[in-house]
Amino acid sequence: MSKVLITSGCSFSECISTDPVTWPRHLYRTLEQCGFDKHISAAMGSQGNGLISRGVIYNVVKALETYEPENILVGVMWSGSNRHDYRCRDVTDLSFVKNKIHNGWIENPTNFVPDGDKNWVILNINWTETKNVEAETYYRMFHDEMGSAIYSLEHINRTQDFLQRNNIKYFFTDYVNGNLILDHHVGNPEVDYLYKLIDKSKYLPVMSEFDWLVKNTAFSHLWKDKSHRYWEHPTTEMHKEFVDQVIYPFLLQNNYIIV
What we know:
The strands form two sheets. The protein has a four-stranded parallel sheet with strand order 2-1-3-6, sandwiched between helices. The chain has a two-stranded antiparallel sheet with strand order 4-5. By secondary structure, the protein is α/β, with parallel strands linked by helices. The chain has helices spanning 23-31, 49-63, 95-98, 133-141, 145-165, 189-196, 209-216, 236-253; strands at 3-8, 36-41, 72-78, 84-87, 120-123, 169-174. The longest helix is centred in the middle third of the chain and has 21 residues, at 145-165. Helix 1 (23-31) crosses helix 8 (236-253) and helix 5 (145-165) runs parallel beside helix 6 (189-196).
C-alpha cells in the first residue's frame, strides 16, 4: 500500500541541493523498505515557523485526498522564533525586490501553496544590515522576543492539533537549542501555558539535531568551528547519523512503521 512522508523545516531540512543530503532524504531512503514511495518536502532555508506550519497543513490536506491517514507520516524540524513572515499585496514594492538583493540562496518572496502567488515575505534577523529595509524596520520597531516565542508556540500547537484531529502520525524536533523560547522567558505566564499544551511524547528524545550532533557525531572534524560557539549546518554524514540513531529508532519504538 502506498505511503507518503511529508517533511518541513528550515535549511537543516530542505531538499533542494545534494550537498548536504539532509535528514528528510536519508529518512525517506530508509523508509522505502517500509512501503513509503513518495516524499513531499515543504522545507526552505530561513523560513520561520508560520510558513512551516502552513506548508505542513496544506500538504497534509492535499495528501488526504489520495492517502488514508494511516499511510501518512509527518516530520517537522521547527525553525527559530526570531524568523518572521507576512503576506505582501504587491511584492514589486519590496526594497530587496526593487534593488535585486538576494538574501542567501532562498527564494524570497515565496509561497507555501505550489500554484499560489509568491507574496509571502521572509524576514531574518540577520538581514538587518543587508539593505533589506523590511527586515531592518521590523526588527527595529516590531520584533519582541517573547512575542515571537508566543507566535511560534501557537504555530506548533495549531499544527499539532490539526495532525492529531486527522489521525496523522507525526514527530517534531528543533534545529538548534533555544530556537523557540529563550531561557529567560521560560516559565513566563504568557508562554508557559502554550508550552504545556505541546505533546512532548511526539518530540524526538533530543534537545535539537544540532545539540545531539555536537555530543554524538563521529564526524565533528568536518565542522570548521570546533568550539561550537556558533552553529554550523550538519554535513551529509551527520544528517544520516541523526536519522539512523535518533529518528528511525523513535519511529520503531512508537510503532509508526512496520519493518
